[in-house]
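Possible race condition, two jobs.
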Amino acid sequence: MVVGSVLVTGGTGYIGSFTALALLEADYKVVIVDNLYNSSKEVLNRIELICGKKPDFYEADVCDEAALDKIFAEHPDIDSVIHFGALKAVGESGEIPLEYYRVNVGGSISLLQSMTKHNVSNIVFSSSATVYGDATRFPNMIPIPEHCPIGPTNPYGRTKSTVEGIITDHIEAQRNNATKKGEAGGEKWNAALLRYFNPSGAHPSGIMGENPLGVPYNLLPLLAQVAIGKREKLLVFGGDYESKDGTAIRDYIHVLDLAQGHLVALNYLRTNTPGVKAWNLGSGRGSTVFEMIKAFNAVVGRELPYQVSPRRPGDVLDLTANPTLANQELNWKTKLTLEDACADLWKWTENNPEGYNQEPPKEFVEALKKEA
C-alpha cells in the first residue's frame, strides 16, 4: 500500500539514493530528479535489486523551474519533497562561491516556487552541521544543540543557512496568508531542517555505496581509495587543533541511519504539522581524524599512508551533534556504529573498485535474492 508520493531532489547522489531506498521500503512512491552532475543512473538499478522497487527518474536540474513544473504536473499525487539537490564540498565552495549560491540557493528558490504552484506543502531539507560554524566560540555548546547560534565559516555552510532562512520565511508566510484570508488548511505547510553531521558507510549488501565521480571530499571514501591504490596517501587537513591528537573532531553517522532520519522526519511533518522544525541527526559521539584512520585501518588490516597538511579555510575544531531532540521527538537514534560504517564502506569499495561503472559482484546479488 502506497502511503504517499515524494519527490527527492538529488536522489541519485549518496544520501539521496539511500533515502529513496528507505522511502520505497516504507511503501512511499518515489520520484527522483537529478542532473547527474556527481552521480550515476545505475544507482536506480541497485535500489531495485535491494528492495524490488524502482523510483521514477527525471534527469533535470533543480534550478530549472519549468522542468520541475512539468514533473509536478505529471505527478499530481506528490505532496512532499525531500531536498538534497546541491553542491556540497566545503573546500570547493571557497573556490567557486557564486556557483554554490547559484545552485544551492537559486535551486532551492526554484523548487519552492514550483512546489507552491502545485500545492506541494511539505519539505524536508537536507541541511548541514556546517551552519553552526565554530560552536566552541560559545560555552557549553559541544555537543552542539539546535539552539546553538548559527554562524557558518565557509560559503557552503552559508548557502545552507540561507536556504534554511528562505524555507522558514516561506512556510511561515504560507501559513500566515491562509490565516489572513480566513482559509482552512494553512497548517499543511511544513518543513524539517535536518542538520546532519558526517555521513559514512555503504549498504551492507555490498552493492550500493558512495560513488563520487571526481575526487571525494569526505574522509572515509578518500581512505578507501588509498586502500585500493587509487590514491597514494590521505591528506589530513590540520594537525594543530586543540584535540587529544591535534586533528579535527567530527560526528560520523552511518548513511542507513541518516536515511531513516529523513524518513521519520517526513512522517513527523505529515502527522504532526509542526510548521518549521530543525533537528540534528548525529550520533553524539565525536571522533578525531586519527581515530577514524585507526578504525578504518583495522578493517582493511594494514596501516594506510597519510600526510598532515595545513588546515583548510573554514574548517572548525569540533562538529559533534547533540541529537537529544531527534531522539525524543522523532523517536530516532543511530543504531549503527563507526566500526559498522568502516566495514560496510570497505566491503563496497574492495568489491566495487569502479563503483557503479561495473557490474555488482554476482555472489552479492545472489545473496540479496535469497533474502527476498
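Job #2 (started ~2 s after job #1):
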Amino acid sequence: MAVGTVLVTGGTGYIGSFTSLALLENGYEVVIVDNLYNSSKVVLDRIELICGKRPAFYEVDVTDEAGLDEVFAKHPEIDSVIHFAALKAVGESGEIPLEYYNVNVGGGIALLRSMKRANVPNIVFSSSATVYGDATRVPNMIPIPEECPIGPTNTYGRTKVMIETVITDHVEAERNRCKKAGQPYERWNGALLRYFNPCGAHPSGIMGEDPQGVPYNLLPLLGKVATGDRKNLLVFGDDYASKDGTAIRDYIHVLDLANGHLAALDYLQEHKPGVRAWNLGSGRGSTVFEMIKAFSKVVGHDLPYTVVERRQGDVLDLTARPARANEELKWRTKLTLENACADLWRWVENNPQGYRQDPPAEFVEALKAKKT
C-alpha cells in the first residue's frame, strides 16, 4: 500500500536516484523530474532491476515553471517534494557563479511557485554542510550542530543558504495565510537536510555515481584513479591544522543518506514541525589521506596522489553532530566507511563505463535470484 506520492527533482542523479529507490522500496509512488544534465535515464532501469518498480519520469528542467506545472497537473496525487536538482561542485561554483545562482536559487524558487499553485505543502530540501562554512571560527562547534552560525565560504554554499531562507519564508507565509483564512495551516512544512560527504554505491554493483566529465568529489576521483582513467589524485592542501595536514570530512554511505530523506519526510507528515533543519552525517571525521588509505586497501594497492594548493572556499573540518537527527528522526548511519569503499570499488571496477554499458550479467542474475 503506497503511503503517498513524492516528486523527486534531480531524481536520476546520484543521491536522487538512491532516494527514489528507497522511497519505492518503502511503499511510496515516485515521480522524477530531471534535465539529465549530469545523469542518465538508464538509472530508471537499474532502480527497476533492484526493486521491481519503476518511477514515472519527465525530462524537465527545474527552472521551467510551465514544465513543472504540467507534471503537477498530470499527477494531482503528489503531496510532497524532495528537491535535489542543483549544480553541486564547490570549486566550479566560484568559476561560474551566475549559473549556480540561476539553477540553484532560480530553480528552487520556480519549484516552490509551482508547488504553491498545485497546493503541494511539503518539501524536503537537499541542503549541505557547506552552509556552515568554517565552523572552527566559533568555539565548541566541531562536530557541527544545527545551532552553528551559518557562514558559507563559497558560492555553492551561499546558494544553499538562500534556498533554505526562501523555503523558511514560504512555509511561514503559507501557514500565516491559512491561519487567517481559518484553514489547516499545519500541512505546510519544510525539512532542511544539511549533509556532509555522500559516498558509496549499491551493494548489488549495478547502481552508483556516474558523473559526466571530471568528478569533483574525492571518492569518485579515487575510483577513476583506481581504474586508470586518471593518472593520479590531486590533494588540495596538506597544511591544514589536522593530524596529517589534510582536510577533515564526514563521509556517509549513500544508502544511509537516502534513508535519512525518508525519515525526514515521515517526520514532516507525522509531526508537522513547520521548517526544521537536520544534519545528516556519521559524526566521524576522516582526513583526505585516511580516505586514500582506506580506498587503496579495498583496491589492493596504493593509489598515486599529488598535493597541490588549497581550493578557494575549502575549510578545515566538516564533521556532523547528528544528535538531532538521531533523536527526532530516529535515524542514524548503519554502514561504515569500509562498506562505502567496498561498494564503490565493486561499482567502478565492474562498470568502467558507468551507465553507458550493460551491468555485469552475474550481478543481474544475483539480484534475480535474491528476489525468488
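The longest strand covers residues 189-195.
Logs attached separately.
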